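Hello,

Following up on my earlier ticket. Below are the three sequence lines again, exactly as submitted.
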Amino acid sequence: MAALSSNLLYIAFILYLVATMFFGGAIKSKKSAEKNGSNKFANLAIMITILGFMSQLGFFITRWIAAGHAPVSNLFEFTTFFGMALVGAFIAIYFIYKAPLLGLFTMPVAILIIAYAAMFPRDISPLIPALQSDWLHIHVTTAAIGEAILAISFAAGLIYLLKVVDQTKKSRSTFWLEVVMYGLISTLGFVAVSTAFSLSDYKAGFQYIDKNGQEAKVEYNLPALVGPNEGNLITKDKLEPVVSTPAIINAKKLNTVLWSLGAGLALYWLIRLMMRKRISASLKPYVKNINLDFVDEISYRSVLVGFPVFTLGALIFAMIWAQVAWTRFWGWDPKEVWALITWLFYAAFLHLRLSKGWHGEKSAWLAVIGFVIIMFNLVAVNLVISGLHSYAG
Amino acid sequence: MKKKRLIARTIILLVLVLAVGYTLYANLTKEDDSTVEIGKEAPDFVLSDREGNKHQLSDYKGKGVFLNFWATWCGPCEREMPHIDNQYKQFKDKRVEVLTVDVGESKIAVDKFVERHNLTFPVMIDEDGQVQAAYGIGQLPITFLIDEEGKVVRSYTGELTEDKVKRFMEEIKP
Amino acid sequence: MNEVKCECGHVNPHGTVICESCGKVLEDSATKRKLLDMRYEGSARRSQTYNKTLVDKIWNFFSSVKVGVTLIVVTLIASSVGTILPQEMYIPQTMTPAEYYEDQYGWFGKLYYDLGFNNLYSSWWYLLLIASIGVSLVICSLDRVVPLYRALKNQRVERHEGFLKRQRLFGLADSPDENSMRQLEENLKSKKYHIRKENGSILAEKNRFSRWGPYVNHIGLIIFLIGGMLRFVPGMYVDELLWIREGETKAIPGTDGKYYLKNNKFIMQTYDKEKDDEVFGAALDRAGTVAKNYQSNVTLYERKGTGVAGESLDLKKVKHEKIRVNQPLKMDNYALYQVDYKLDELSKMHLALQNKKTGEELGTIKVNLYNPDTHYKLKNGYSVEIKSYFPDFEFDENSKPTTKSKVPNNPAFVFKMVTPDKPEGEVSFVAIRQTIEADGDNTYKMAFKGVETKNVAALTVRKDLTLWILGLGGLIFMVGVIQGAYWNHRRLWVRFMDEKAIIAGHTNKNWYGLKRELESVFKETGIQAPVDQLESGKKG
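Thanks for your patience. The regenerated structure is below:
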């Protein structure tokens, strides 16, 4: 069952990749026919997406059966579920708005998220006592679905910005748009580097002094650019770290982050050299036929739909579970605080839009920032700021 | 019309300010909320001392009661005990009673402690923590001053000097 | 007061932009624009009309959405600052917070502590921020909901031409015939529109209730905040910790001596590769030990009568129960949660009186470490007396033996061993793995033979009478937010003027949805559906 489960995930992953290409094709072939021109490529693309979604749903269900609990209990499981929810949300929106272009931008994000998830331990893990609650499944799944719907607004916002930002001259907008692109590419960098070194079975052990002054051991799976506090390389013929960190910093995680950013930078410049212009500039032709108000509305609508779901999952259900598992519904744990921050952010977004008339470009930037906050909560808070929510990772 | 609106606004703002003010005040003072309130009746209790005599707080109405919670492992408690004992001898005949409650240690530890310091006032052990729960005991030592009507006049957390002990006993002398 | 009388005869409050009744644009600046700003139906938001007294000024300050959003953003940033370093409640209690932050995080930690960020979420200024958001919620809502209600209630069917022309969806049709109009009405009805008619003109409207969504959700939030505030009222909230050993019966703190609890057994289970599902094998290999269950088997007692604290107990059994993580014990408004534990705390120690030279054992004593007996009689005239007992032994600064607490973490004794050959007795100090004698020439010693242990469970005692209020607030918030987000207030006007029909459509959100709906509504009526002036504007 477990084996079947992981195969289904691979199939889903490949189908998503194929679907993305077809969405690309749908845009190209659609260049003249503007709206409602449902073309063969787009139909095929959405069919493949649905197939992939079904396959991932199969992965989810079989894994649930194998584990005996809903597979949302560690970082890998949660993140893949988030990816699946994103695809699901996209499919739903696609049938309302029939916008293949949205697929061209949403699917790569979903693919990146699933690939990112796969870099974490994929074992089926048993539940510690605090997690043995139905509220866990309800809270985590609802929160993920809410975040996924909100992420659609990011994709739509990005499309809006790609079209509206003037690429003929350098500006703050072009710079930040490139930063967003670089962020996405860095995720790819992380996946590439992790995969490459895990295939070559890279292992470098260190002995070091941890922050409590105790001797401890750590195993790097990437060559150490930064070593742990007073670290001693104990595996032979591996790279000696360039610098070592103070004890309170988790050197292994910092090392991974540096590798990802570095690989991201390399990839970014490679692409830029090939394209001979900014990445957002080279994406511009894809979005030139899109109607700005239409994309703006998709972006806004996703926030409208996603916000209540997010509130329910990430705050209300979370509070109910926290009351049962941890005796109090709210404890200012970093993850809780970041859920609150996300919620406050989108509340501000809605007020700015409703009362201050922030439509169009401003709204699109907000959608992008919102997604950055969600990803920060997903990635940084789990890995860097540890707390009750720090899953095995 | 205009006036009515102003009144309505004033009332709403006042309610809001009061609510916020109360919350802030309550939040800032929440650290020292023990179950015992100053000015209120002290929770009654009954414990036996080392000789087996029962002491019930309500029996001491008409006298001031100097109630002290302590432990043998608590340094400040150990240092203040002789002061309390000295003053106990002074105030015994002035209708001030001293009751001290150990927070549930072994009898042997308490006995040795009392013998070592030659304490003469009644020492009781709150074995199952009932009295501590009733008084909301956290940090040690803590002293409650109870007047002749059984009301709590003061509570003091921390080590006492002989001077303080004396002043406290004066305070509850009927 | 400067009320504004519209040419249609309706009297509007001062500050109105669009006549509540006919929709005529009353403010000059708005007439110059191509499209109307339909927020709050162009009604007079009271806040903006009076600005005389201090009360009005404060009121107007909080009534501004700009201020509201600013408060939200400031709160958001402040909240994120609190996650940079762990809050004080999450740091180990081995040293004072001031030392901890500086020791762990250097100058930054010291700064963080000095600025009070270690307790950021209970600081007065953070509470003040949240409270200000609450105030802003109340005032903003009050200031907007009343005029909006008036405007929607007073709206007439026949709206002013200037109003209709400035709607985003707009169309002109050459007088459609009756059949077409009837068809249109039917189509609208089948889409659940309510239709009002006046002189042949039509106002079709649906989902007006969604306009109240924001105000409903604000009410929910206010109730939630009130719930949070009530937490500080004495008696509403109890948060106590109870450490209880196996076999021990203790008063449950916070219940005023009403309830007692006996811990019968504490159980900790871990996942076992052999016994548990084999799919967990790989994860267990990687993670090592993984906890499966923390459980206290307890008996709950209620105290009979109004006993005085300390008096011997008259307890009535209420129930046996197993407290697990996620499965608290509930009684009245209290709940007991499994939160912590300590395995194998020493409870009894076995020691033998031994002849140092021959190793002969002359009897064994069992010492209860919680409350040891003083005298232990052995056979043949041998006996042992405990002179001193230090449950959590250490040497103090004067190298005198002392105890750190009453918990037997490291028990130590001063024994007096009385034997027939040494009737005055020999004294020896015995701690774990060490024996100290005054002069070192004792004949006898107390030899360590073994220990008995008990597990200790930590339970949180919780009473929270505000939970239902918070729940109610949450529920109302969800209702409001769904009401406002998942439905849209849609209107369609058809007005006959000069042989023509002016058609205009409006929705508060989701224009795409309205356009699609109108397309299907106007289909087969022969009337041209109104077009989006924003879109056509761009193309033209």
